[in-house]
Write a structure and sequence with these properties.
Largest sheet: 4 strands, antiparallel
Shape: elongated
Oligomer: single chain
Bound molecules: flavin-adenine dinucleotide
Low-confidence stretches: none
Strand order of the largest sheet: 1-2-4-3
Number of strands: 4
Length: 230
């Protein structure tokens, strides 16, 4: 099963909400009036100004919830290191792992010998898991024999400020391929929903015009479109 990422919920009119919240800082008008008043062009100009000046707290008013299926526990372990977010992950304590299901990295799936070793090991681990469960071992203990690449499902909620930070780290070529695939899907979804907030999002080479890594990859992206094309 391939990765699937859905945007299941988000702040209605995220661009407008962020722009109106930020305008409130500099206006006598009420937040309600500002939400009504702001026009499309004002909104994108204002959001551009916020990004440029580093006044990013208004970005926290726009929130996005994603349902992610078909990723590995390797990837979710990297994902949940991002602390300014909320997570709900399928439990291996309560849900029995009935099938051998793991994410196969491209370096392995493209090599027939490696793929055979990998799939055999996954099947064997799952066989050991089933045997332990059948012998009365609790699922929460039997799962210790399952590998890192085991497939999982997770729901994640992040605000737009944290998403920018997440994209800057996880769309960089130095991040691992699987979380980059996840981050690309997430960016593509939020760009549809909030084009002004995410017109310029991605690794620092794109979003900030230069790389801050001590060991740069040597092939910076030239545009968000290039990042999204993989
Ligand atoms: C390419 C790559 C390689 C990595 N390799 C490793 C590795 O080898 N080992 C490893 O352990 N991790 C590794 N990581 C994970 C990394 O160290 C971070 O834990 C992860 O990316 C989450 O980022 P964060 O802490 O900036 O952000 P978040 O948790 O998303 O927080 C966002 C920002 O909020 C602020 N913040 C959040 N919590 C605190 C706090 N408690 N105190 C102060 N400020 C806070 C910080 O400014 C932070 O940048 C790697 C990440 C990448 C992208």
């Amino acid at each position: 099963m391939a990765i699937s990422v859905l945007l299941v919920a988000s702040t209605p009119e995220p661009d407008r909400t962020v722009a109106a919240a930020a305008r409130l800082c500099y206006s006598n008008a009420s937040a309600g009036d500002l939400v009504e008043e702001m026009k499309g062009e004002d909104i994108s100009r204002f959001i551009g100004h916020l990004r440029g000046s580093g006044h990013l707290s208004p970005f926290e008013h726009a929130v996005f919830t994603f349902a992610v299926d078909g990723i590995s526990r390797v990837c979710t372990h990297q994902l949940v290191r991002h602390r300014l977010a909320s997570y709900s992950q399928q439990s291996q304590r309560y849900v029995e792992m009935t099938q051998p299901e793991a994410v196969i990295p491209p370096s392995i799936s493209s090599d027939p010998v490696a793929k055979e070793i990998f799939t055999r090991t996954i099947r064997e681990s799952h066989g050991a898991y089933k045997a332990l469960v059948e012998a009365g071992i609790p699922r929460e203990d039997a799962r210790y024999v399952l590998p890192h690449g085991w497939m999982t499902k997770i729901v994640v909620t992040m605000n737009a400020r944290e998403l920018h930070h997440f994209f800057s780290m996880r769309l960089c070529r130095r991040a691992q391929w699987e979380i980059r695939v996840l981050a690309r899907e997430m960016l593509s979804l939020v760009r549809e929903k909030a084009p002004s907030l995410f017109s310029l999002a991605g690794p620092d080479c794109v979003a900030r015009g230069r790389c801050f890594e001590s060991r740069p990859c040597g092939s910076p992206f030239s545009s968000v479109e290039e990042v999204l094309s993989g």
